[in-house]
Amino acid sequence: MKNPFYVARGTINGKRIERSTGQKTYAAAKRQCERIAAEIIAGDAHSVPEGELTVQQVISLFRQAGRDAGFLDRIEKHFQYTPVAEIRNAEMRAAANAIYPKAAPATIRRRLYTPMKAVLNFAANEELCAPPRLVSPSGGKRKIQFFTPEEADAVLVALAAEQNQFLVTLVTGLFGQSMRMGEAITLDSRDVSLSHRYAILRNTKNGEERIISLTSRTVAAWSRLPTIGVPGSLFRCADGHSFDHGNNRGGQISKPFSRAVETAGLDPARYTPHICRHSWATWFYDQTKDVLRLKTEGGWKSTEYERYVKMVAPGIGRVAGKRGWSFTALDPGGT
């Protein structure tokens, strides 16, 4: 009988690989091939001397651990087999010139230095290399971008017209809660209680689980999901499969989200899925003035949450509340 599954064949790190993907469709098999390659590369990382450990191997380990892999594709392509021990400030400046030649310092910090430091710190914690001593470029102020409640509603109306009906409920959660994209797409339905209005986020950016309080609008939207009470991912692709976890900054829904943003009359280059989290924090603090809840619900271990406390957007929280985004602790059922 012919094997119904696609077989992965090739060479990785000089090793000949032939392994069943366990998948019957080409698209699913291709995704499985990427996972197989990552597992092999990551496994090799623990068996090589520190001086020979490559950037590609460390990034594979980082992804295997379920960490936020945003912006790592370009970094991996640039450095590839470069030993981690050779990554110094000079190499990082060269990478910045090659990958982001015209980018502002703030962009280079966010897209190159921050993810690279995260990867190298992860490897150092695994005792695979020394802690990094990289100095990020100075200059350029960080800009806060957020949706107004009216703009958010316009985006949701546009998303409701998409074929994948999970999208509008997912983005409702991004606006109404503190979730990052990676936390949302890995949320298991068994960790959601609509009756008690909470969800447990397990795959978080800082590695620590946290419980978030669900707003009435989120509860209403999620109650229509066919996956509530069904083991597995709460949010799915149009074909019913779970989203790929490789990109945690919104790449999984970037195309339909961009279409919705354009339909709402906004610029997709400025308004990405991650801006939903900025919007939540902006609305939340203006409405509640509760610094502790902002920090706790947002899952910040750094002082990054303070930017929302210092920013003034008077009245935006009140408008959000009128549109159903109520964050008061005793909200009995929304407005």
UniProtKB/TrEMBL annotation:
Pfam family name, one: Phage_integrase
Keyword annotations of the record: DNA integration, DNA recombination, DNA-binding
GO molecular function, one term: DNA binding
GO biological process: DNA integration; DNA recombination
Keyword DNA-binding: yes
Residues in Tyr recombinase domain copies: 142-321
Family: Belongs to the 'phage' integrase family.
Matching PANTHER family: INTEGRASE_RECOMBINASE PROTEIN MJ0367-RELATED (PTHR30349:SF41), PHAGE INTEGRASE-RELATED (PTHR30349)
Full protein name: Tyrosine-type recombinase/integrase
